[in-house]
Amino acid sequence: SSRRRHTRCREVSWARRCVQETGIVTGSVCGLIAITPGSGYVPSWSSLIIGFIGGLISNFMVRLKNKTKYVDDSLDVFACHGVSGPWGVFVCGLWAYKVGLTSGSDGAFYGNGYLLAYQIAGILSTAGYTLFMTTLIAVIMNKLNLLKVSPTTEEIGLDI
């Protein structure tokens, strides 16, 4: 999955004639993030599909982020973890396969649609909790004037 995502990222970069090593490394990380929820529970052939599609949607999110001026995500963390992670959880609900395992359940493609429903509920509850806690922390930090640095400090830089 990681290798497939790495290859896909390199192909997209070469097609645009702008190969960047950070983009290739980010693509590899996105592939690993996408397969992590299902590792050990999905057939090995599906990891290629999970990585490929995870790569496409992560690449799309990076391009979308670069077109807007309101998102400050220089390391593409949301595209990796916020997109590839839920994608991996979702497809685990589709392709999970219990043969040879002592725990777990089959996914929707193997007759158990309940697992897919549980995975979707997990994605939504995690997103809701994350949104609530991030908003709460940001509001508190903003009230304490800890969310931004002064313009002078920003101009000088925060490097030590």
Largest sheet: none
* Percent in strands: under 5%
Q: Overall pLDDT, averaged?
A: 84
Bin the helical content.
Answer: 55-70%
Poorly predicted spans? none
- The arrangement of helices and strands along the chain is HHHHHH
Structural class call reads mainly alpha
- Total DSSP helices: 6
Any key phrases for this structure?
mainly alpha; 160 residues
What can you see in these coordinates?
This protein has 160 residues and is an all-alpha fold. 68% of the residues lie in helices and 0% in strands. The chain has 6 helices and no strands. It has helices spanning 2-15, 21-35, 44-67, 77-95, 113-143, 151-156. Helix 2 packs parallel to helix 4 (77-95), helix 3 runs antiparallel to helix 4 and helix 4 (77-95) packs antiparallel against helix 5. The longest helix has 31 residues, at 113-143. The mean pLDDT is 84.
Map the helices and strands.
Layout: H1 2-15, H2 21-35, H3 44-67, H4 77-95, H5 113-143, H6 151-156
Helix pairs in contact: 1-2, 1-3, 2-3, 2-4, 3-4, 4-5
Give a brief description.
This protein has helices at residues 2-15, 21-35, 44-67, 77-95, 113-143, 151-156. The protein has 160 residues and is mostly helical.
